[in-house]
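Lab notebook, bench 4. The sequencing result for the construct came back, and we need a structural model before the next group meeting so we can plan mutations. Quick request posted to the team channel:

Model the 3D structure of this chain.
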Amino acid sequence: MMQLPRGWTVLVVTPSTRPFRPCTQPRDPAGAANMPGSGRKPYPSMKKYLALAAVTLALFGQSVRAAEIESRSLDQIHKEALKEGGALVIYAGGDTPNQLDGIKTAFEKRFPGMTLEVVVDYSKVHNARLDQQFADGKVVADVVQLQTLQDFPRWRREGRLLPYKPRGWDHIYSSFKDQTGAWTGVFVDAFSNLANTKTLGSTPAPSNAHDYLDPALKGKIISTYPNDDDAVLFWYKQTIDRHGWEWMEKFMQQEPHFVRGTQAPADAVASGKYPVTFTTDGSLKHDADSPVRFSIPTNDGFVAWAQRAAIIKGTRRPESARLYLSWLLDKDTQKNVWYMWSVRNDVQPPADYRPIWEYSSANLSNFERFMADRDAVERFRARIQLYVGEVQGPSSAGVLGMTPTKALEAPTAAKR
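Done. Here's the predicted structure in C-alpha cell form:
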C-alpha cells in the first residue's frame, strides 16, 4: 500500500448511483458555443480553474507544513520568539489571579528575555470573552488554555486555531490531542479527595462518596458550588448517577459550606479551617512535613481531564506561542513543574499511582461527553441548584473586563 507523507489527506470520490444518460443536446447557448465545430475556442475558463487549483495546492501545502511535528530545539525556537518582542499572553482557565504563577516563573527562568502574561479567569468566562473578541476582530490572547473541552473542536471548525504539533507530540496520549494539531492537552487535572489529617484527628479520611455522610464530618466539609464549575458539577453527576438523589439529600444534611472556585477549598483544607473536600486537586507527591493528603476513591469515581491549549490563529507572536507549548509539553516540564499526572506516556506518575488513562474511575471520556452535551449539562445544573441554591459571592478570579492583557494583582492574603 502506498504511504502518504505525514499530514496528507486522501480525498475519495465515489461514483454516482444514478444511471448514465448521454446528452445529445447542449444545455444552453453558452454550452453550444463551446461544442466542437462551433468555431469558438473551447473552454475559455480553463485558465481560471488552473489558477484556482494552484492557489488551493499552495494553501494545502501550508496546512501540511503547519501540521508537521516540531523538530527544532527549545533554544532554537526561543531565538525566534525573541524576535517577536519576547512577550506572550495566555488566557488560562483557573480560579485566582496567581494560581499559575509557578508556570510563569519556570518559563521565564528557562527563557531569559521572555515575559509570560498568564491571565487567569474561569474557563466559562474566558471562552465567552474569546468568542466576543473573535466577533469584534480584537483578539489579544496568543494561546488559550481551558477546561471547557467542548470549545476546541468548535473553534477548530470555525478556523480560529493555528495547527501546531509541539515537540514530543508522539509521546502525548492519543486521546489527549487533536490529530490535526489544532489543540492538545497540556497537563492533567483531577478533582478528588483532599484531607487534612491533623484537623481530622481520629476521624478517618473519606475516600468514597458515602464516607462524606459520616456524622463526624457534619459542618466540616467545604465544596465548590457544583452549579458554578462544570468539572465539579460532573463529580456530583457521576456520584448521583451511582448512588441516587438520596445521597444528595443526605449530603445536604451534613451542612457543607459552598464557595466559588476550586482554589478556596484547597486553601481551607491546607489551613485546617475545614478538614476535607472533594472539589479540588492536590499534589501526587506527598510532602512529609504537611498533613494534607490527596487521594482517589477506592470504589467510586472522580473527575479528571487534560486541560486543552491551542494557538490562536492570527497571533502576532506565533513563535512565542510555539515555544510555550513545546516547553509545557517537554518531558522535564511535565515531570518537574506540574504536580499531577502528565499527558505524556513516557513520564511516569509518582509511586502508588498509575497513568491516569489506566483508571476507569477517572471518567476521562465520560467527562468529555458530558461537556459536549450542553443541554444535559444545563438540565443537571438547574436540578442540583435546587439543593445548593444560587451561587453566592464575587468571582474568585476577579473581574478582568473584555480584553485583558495582564494578570490581575492577587490580594496579599491570597498569595502563596
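The chain has 14 helices and ten strands.
Will bring this to the meeting.
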